[in-house]
């Protein structure tokens, strides 16, 4: 049975707020609340894949301490742009 769109958004939102580190909770949680509903199916698929990455790598990518894998570059740029405006 496939996941409904509503369930997927709830699952991604919960995974965004309940990471392994508080820093990533505070970065991904507000981003998810503000943007998940407006992402395309392809963008949601990519965001879902991003959430499988470990928090130490994610934090280094969003803070500019390490290069972002090309696959996630545009998404990380969107997330960091949201974080800077918030």
Care to describe what's here?
The chain is mostly helical. It has a single domain (about 5-85), classed as Flavinator of succinate dehydrogenase (DNA polymerase, domain 1). The chain contains 5 helices and no strands. It has helices spanning about 5-15, 20-35, 40-50, 55-60, 75-85. Helix 2 (about 20-35) packs across helix 5. It starts with a helix and ends with a helix. It holds the Pfam family Sdh5. InterPro entries: SDH (IPR005631), SDH_sf (IPR036714). This is FAD assembly factor SdhE. Belongs to the SdhE FAD assembly factor family. Keywords: Chaperone.
Q: How do the SSEs run, as a string of H and E?
A: HHHHH
Give the N-to-C terminal Cα separation.
37 Å
State the share of residues found in helices, binned by percent: 55-70%
Major sheet characteristics: none
The CATH topology turns out to be: DNA polymerase, domain 1
User: Percent of residues in beta strands?
Assistant: under 5%
Question: Which structural class do the helices and strands define?
Answer: mainly alpha
The poorly predicted ranges are none
How many strands in all?
Answer: 0
The radius of gyration is: 12 Å
CATH classification, class level: Mainly Alpha
Number of helices: 5
So, CATH architecture?
Answer: Orthogonal Bundle
Quick one: CATH superfamily?
A: Flavinator of succinate dehydrogenase
Count of distinct structural domains = 1
Shape: globular
Q: Mean pLDDT, nearest integer?
A: 93
Keywords: Chaperone
Family: Belongs to the SdhE FAD assembly factor family.
InterPro entries: SDH, SDH_sf
Pfam family, one: Sdh5
């Amino acid at each position: 049975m496939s996941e409904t769109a509503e369930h997927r958004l709830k699952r991604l939102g919960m995974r965004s707020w309940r990471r392994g580190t508080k820093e990533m909770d505070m970065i991904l949680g507000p981003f998810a609340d503000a943007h998940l509903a407006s992402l395309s199916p392809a963008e949601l698929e990519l965001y879902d894949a991003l959430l499988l990455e470990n928090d130490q790598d994610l934090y280094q990518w969003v803070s500019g301490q390490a290069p972002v894998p090309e696959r996630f570059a545009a998404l990380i740029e969107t997330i960091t742009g949201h974080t800077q405006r918030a």
